[in-house]
């Protein structure tokens, strides 16, 4: 597992296309959301409080960059078959489960690195320009609680999804899923947005870091479908959301392994 993890991490981190696509998407992100990104203030005075500013930064970071994250991971599990080395690896004494976990962790860690650099880089800039070093302290738990759980699930989904369809088709559907299931307002159409199954939501921001409530309590939306999946934000619901993300990732990896066993037989 460790050897696979190291190999996959180094190979993914050295892909020029990863840095180029992330860079272009970051430019689009900043250009589109420049006023909010520059001040880390969405009109409620968030930018004056380091904790709230980092929560805004996490929200903006998770708006577009996860699309790149998922699309870049989508071809990694199929690469061994495409190169013709899968039978050789299957014949080796290495544990198949260990190889799968190592590939998952290595690829996801490498692909998430630009997201981490974007978030923590903004925290450093904020700490310097605002003279509030405590933003750096807040950035670590906020990254772990707000950003990381969603990436755990998205990484497993993107790794396994192309087993069911061509990678290009999966990427198209993944982009559509991201906007439908994470960014579209819940009262616009039936959607997983703002539910405990959404990889990007603000449950941790409101339920764990006491972000000031907006016009409505973060939870059920008036007139929205699937409100039973939108409990009111509390610390317990934050833990539930994190558990759902990890459980979904584990289930997907288990199904991936079972699919491989079936294919081998």
Task: Walk me through the structure.
With 265 residues, this protein is an all-alpha fold. It has one domain. The protein is built from eleven helices and no strands. It has helices at residues 2-13, 16-32, 34-39, 50-73, 79-83, 86-91, 96-130, 134-160, 167-183, 203-207, 235-264. α4 runs antiparallel to α7, α4 (50-73) packs parallel to α8 and α4 packs antiparallel against α9. The longest helix has 35 residues, at 96-130. It is globular. The mean pLDDT is 89.
Give a short synopsis of this structure.
This protein is mostly helical and 265 residues long. The protein has helices at 2-13, 16-32, 34-39, 50-73, 79-83, 86-91, 96-130, 134-160, 167-183, 203-207, 235-264.
Order of helices and strands: HHHHHHHHHHH
Helix-strand makeup class? mainly alpha
Oligomer: single chain
What does the main sheet amount to?
none
Number of helices: 11
What gap, in angstroms, lies between the N and C termini?
23 Å
Average predicted confidence as pLDDT: 89
Give the proportion of residues in helices: 55-70%
**How many beta-strand segments?**
0
**Overall geometry:** globular
Strand fraction: under 5%
Which spans of ≥5 residues are poorly predicted at pLDDT below 50?
none
- The radius of gyration over CA amounts to 19 Å
Q: What is the total domain count? A: 1
């Amino acid at each position: 597992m460790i050897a696979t993890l190291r190999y996959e991490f180094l190979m993914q981190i050295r892909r020029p296309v990863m840095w180029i696509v992330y860079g272009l998407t970051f430019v689009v992100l900043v250009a589109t959301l420049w006023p909010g990104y520059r001040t880390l203030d969405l009109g409620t005075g968030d930018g004056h409080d380091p904790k709230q500013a980092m929560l805004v930064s996490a929200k903006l970071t998770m708006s577009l960059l996860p699309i790149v994250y998922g699309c870049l991971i989508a071809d990694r599990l199929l690469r061994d078959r495409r190169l013709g080395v899968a039978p050789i690896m299957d014949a080796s004494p290495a544990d198949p489960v260990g190889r799968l976990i190592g590939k998952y962790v290595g690829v996801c860690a490498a692909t998430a690195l630009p997201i981490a650099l974007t978030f923590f880089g903004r925290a450093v800039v904020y700490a310097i320009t605002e003279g509030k070093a405590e933003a750096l302290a807040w950035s670590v738990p906020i990254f772990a609680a707000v950003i990381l759980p969603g990436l755990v699930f998205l990484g497993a989904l993107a790794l396994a999804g192309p087993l069911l369809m061509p990678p290009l088709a999966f990427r198209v559907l993944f982009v559509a899923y991201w906007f439908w299931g994470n960014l579209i307002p819940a009262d616009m159409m039936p959607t997983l947005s703002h539910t405990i199954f959404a990889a990007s939501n603000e449950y941790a921001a409101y339920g764990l870091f006491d972000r000031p409530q907006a016009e409505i309590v973060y939870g059920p939306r008036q007139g929205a479908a699937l409100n039973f999946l939108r409990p009111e934000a509390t610390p317990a619901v934050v833990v539930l959301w994190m558990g759902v993300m990890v459980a979904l990732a584990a289930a997907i990896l288990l199904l991936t392994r079972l699919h491989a066993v079936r294919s081998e037989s």
